[in-house]
Every structure is written in C-alpha cells, then in structure tokens.
Amino acid sequence: MIDESKIRERAYALWEKDACPDGADCFYWYLAQDQLESALQLSRRECAHVTNEEKVSLVNGAAATG
C-alpha cells in the first residue's frame, strides 16, 4: 500500500504538469496511485533476487554511511 501523502504529492505534480485542469482530481489521484504502485511492484521484482546476506550488507553499509 502506498502512503496517501505520496499519492497526493504525485497527483499534484501530474496535475500541475497538465496545466491544472478543473474537475480532474479523481483522474490524477488514480493515475498517481497506479504509477506509484507499478513502481513499487517493479522495485520488488528487481530486488527479489537479492540474497539475505546481500540485504544485510546493504543495510549495514547504509547505516555506516548514514
């Protein structure tokens, strides 16, 4: 599930990009939701092959630098 604030931000950006048309709030909300969910699914597929050891290494590396 995508965070509602992320959907709102994406929908607003899409709406602005299209010159702020009136009466299209639902269209942009669902478009943003669809785009974000598609991106999340793609990300999960790309990460599915990563082993647990690699995940731990990535997390430890991020913790050391962040």
Automatic annotation (TrEMBL):
Highest rank taxon of the organism: Bacteria
UniProt xrefs under InterPro entries: DUF2934
Pfam families per UniProt: DUF2934
UniProt name for this protein: DUF2934 domain-containing protein
Source organism (scientific name): Pseudomonas fluorescens
